């Protein structure tokens, strides 16, 4: 799981740097309202996750949770934060 998150975060950082055509991630960094789009997605997907959990729909829970994690990592990158910032906070709670 750690590798999956690290690999995904590395792709997100690369998209931020290179802004390739056709990349959804790059479009979030390139557009003036990209941050709003990410925040809106996080809100929508959280609601969808809650509904999936109420339905006990495990496939949908995994799908919505993955959407949230991806957009959360994009948000961290937008704020020039890293996965280490998240790890440090989680570790501090142990
Ligand atoms: N994990 C993701 C990822 N999750 C979601 N999305 C995009 O986020 C957008 C919104 O996702 P949603 O699930 O909300 O889309 P939706 O169809 O409206 O779904 P619902 O609202 O109904 O849940 C869609 O365009 C998705 O393609 C993602 N886009 C990219 N990634 C990762 O980022 C990598 C780089 O992608 P590009 O930047 O597009 O090259 C990919 O290889 C993936 O690993």
TrEMBL record:
One of the record's GO cellular component terms: cytoplasm
Pfam families found in the cross-reference section: PRA-PH (PF01503)
Enzyme Commission no: 3.6.1.31
Domain of life per record: Archaea
Signal peptide segment: none
GO molecular function, one term: ATP binding
InterPro entries in the record: HisE (IPR008179), PRib-ATP_PPHydrolase-like (IPR021130)
Keyword Cytoplasm set for record: yes
Catalytic activity: 1-(5-phospho-beta-D-ribosyl)-ATP + H2O = 1-(5-phospho-beta-D-ribosyl)-5'-AMP + diphosphate + H(+)
Gene3D superfamilies: MazG-like
Entry keywords, A to Z: Amino-acid biosynthesis, ATP-binding, Cytoplasm, Histidine biosynthesis, Hydrolase, Nucleotide-binding
Pathway note: Amino-acid biosynthesis; L-histidine biosynthesis; L-histidine from 5-phospho-alpha-D-ribose 1-diphosphate: step 2/9
Main location: cytoplasm
Biological process according to GO: L-histidine biosynthetic process
Localization, UniProt: Cytoplasm
Keyword Repressor set for record: no
PANTHER family per the UniProt record, alphabetical: HISTIDINE BIOSYNTHESIS BIFUNCTIONAL PROTEIN, HISTIDINE BIOSYNTHESIS BIFUNCTIONAL PROTEIN HIS7
Family the entry assigns: Belongs to the PRA-PH family.
Protein name: Phosphoribosyl-ATP pyrophosphatase
Highest classification ranks of the organism: Archaea, Methanobacteriati, Methanobacteriota, Stenosarchaea group, Halobacteria
